[in-house]
Amino acid sequence: MHPPFSLIWFFLTAGTSIGLFTFTYLAELLSLFGFDTSLPRNMVVFSVVFSLILVGLGAVGASFHLGHKMRAWKAIKRFHTSWLSREAVFSGAYGFTLLLYGLSYYFGLNAFFIHLFGITTLILGWLSAFSTAMIYASNRFVLEWNTSLTVLYYLNMYLMLGSSAFLATTYHYKPQLVKPFILLTLFFVILGLSFRIAFNIRQFFLKRPTLNEALNLPHNRPIRVLDTGTTTNNYCTEEFYYAKGKEMLSFVIPTFYVVTFLVPIALLSYSLISGNLSYGFYALTYASLVIGSAIERWSFFVEGNHVQNLFYGLYPKEGYTLRKGYMERRKTKISL
Amino acid sequence: MAQFALVIDLNTCVGCHACATNCKEWNTQAAFGPLSDFDPYGKEPHGVWYNRIMTYETGEFPNTQVFHLPKSCLHCQDAPCVPVCPTGASYKREQDGIVLVNYDDCIGCKLCSWSCPYGCREFDEADKVMKKCTLCIDRIYDETLPPEHRKPACVLTCPAKARFFGDIEDPNSEVYKVIKERNGFVLFPDMGTNPANHYLPRTETKVHIDEHILKPDNPLFLEVVQKHYKGG
């Protein structure tokens, strides 16, 4: 699939926004139960304003993916069937309640209302994240995406971005939370690494459809594409098959594994073990996670193979082959 | 409930692209047009087509067969492209089962094309909306046209008469009969889309001549020999 940069931008901005707000608000919420997690006023205001700006920038950026930006509001009409519609509704509502939370906190409204807006924002933010992940996970024609791992990794990505952003922020405002958040960020990054490895390994075991199945022909009939009817690429071959990206995958996949997972793990482990609680480590961790996640999301799109590519002979090779008198299913070949 | 569809005979389709050309010619100027083209006379011409013809080869040399597969929107009975549309611009008509796009509501998010396993929806970069085969809905209901012309442009133009159009749910229709009699099949049956467009499979045609016809005392012998060995 062709990676749209506007969506990658949205994932990173919304991810940091929702993730950062989650940890900021949870710290505030836990202080109600007697934990020493109450944050300085400046930090809450900074986190909320930063989250608001990011979700606003994300929404503007994501609209560049649309053909008609001014009609984007119409995306609320099919809430009952479309995950994209749900994402639009929940993201918009998240931004609105986040603003209400920020205003009520800033003007020192009744604590009940502050927490009411806070919990509502938290729930809407995660519903928005879940809806975004389900747009991809529910697409049964891109088998690589059609798994719960897509959702798990995606939600965990928000937690990785959020906890690392919180870590870099809390360093300045409440240093007591630095060590717990180093551990928390490490946990989410390692969890993300395991989800991503599982996502990649799963691709080798997918039972992929064949051109014979697409054309409803017997499995044992050899078939090949002679001509696709056009002399150049068309919408289908460009949107569903990114040839340049496929060539770069063997380089990009190891790169994002290093930048998204290994670099943050190394930085945080060093900081934790050596006791060197320097700000540079946390700023670098967040930067590495943002850059790595951008490359990882790009790769997520390029790794996806749409079944319509079968008609063009652009789908990963798999099928049946006649060997020693019986039909044997060929193994999937994926270029890494 | 009616379900209009195309039935394409792969036995007679010669892959001449006339259906695609006439589709483009009609639809680019009709109610659902234009089908924008970019760099049409340059090195990299590309544009929107409702109908594309693929050519495949089956079998192993020397026993191979080539067949052509014209592929346009299959107007699936469980169309997966419809529920994913966030605005409801993509819809399936109840009265005839035709899947259409309302260009005024389409925001151009391309999600419907991601949800089509057949690659039958194409994004128009000029109009910024998703376009697809309409089964020439502006022809088939046009009462100003003579009744025999109220058919999709591709069906009317096919020189091999390989394309049929009608209601596949109506037992009296031509398409219903050809699907039943000639084992019409659909593309990607496992995808749960239940496509309305059907294809008629290729069949081998053999001439069977009884032995007694080839005996020299058969008065027709000379005529048979002349017919079969004409020109050589």
Q: What would you note in describing this structure?
A:
The complex is a heterodimer of chains A (336) and B (232). Chain A has 336 residues and is mainly alpha-helical. Chain A has two domains: 1-138; 164-336, no CATH class. In chain A, 65% of the residues lie in helices and 4% in strands. Chain A contains ten helices and three strands; from the N terminus they run αααααααβαααββ. Chain A has helices at 5-32, 41-63, 83-106, 111-137, 148-173, 178-202, 211-214, 235-239, 243-274, 279-303, and strands spanning 223-227, 320-323, 326-329. In chain A, a hairpin with a 2-residue loop joins strand 2 and strand 3. In chain A, helix 5 (148-173) runs antiparallel to helix 6. Chain A starts with a helix and ends in a 7-residue tail after the last strand. The model of chain A is unreliable at 319-325 (pLDDT under 50). Chain B is of the alpha+beta class and 232 residues long. Chain B has one domain: Alpha-Beta Plaits (2-Layer Sandwich), CATH 3.30.70. Helix content of chain B is 19%, strand content 21%. Chain B is built from seven helices and eleven strands. Chain B has helices at residues 18-27, 81-84, 111-114, 137-140, 153-157, 174-181, 221-228, and strands spanning 4-9, 37-38, 46-47, 52-60, 63-71, 90-92, 99-101, 122-124, 129-131, 163-167, 198-200. Chain B has a three-stranded mixed sheet with strand order 10-1-11. The longest helix of chain B has 10 residues, at 18-27. The chains are: A mainly alpha (336), B alpha+beta (232). Chains A and B meet through helix 3, helix 7, strand 1 and helix 8 of A and strand 4, strand 5 and helix 3 of B.
What are the defining features of this structure?
heterodimer, A: 336 residues, mainly alpha, 2 domains, two-stranded antiparallel ribbon, 65% helix, globular, B: 232 residues, alpha+beta, Alpha-Beta Plaits, three-stranded mixed β-sheet, 7 helices, 11 strands, 19% helix, elongated
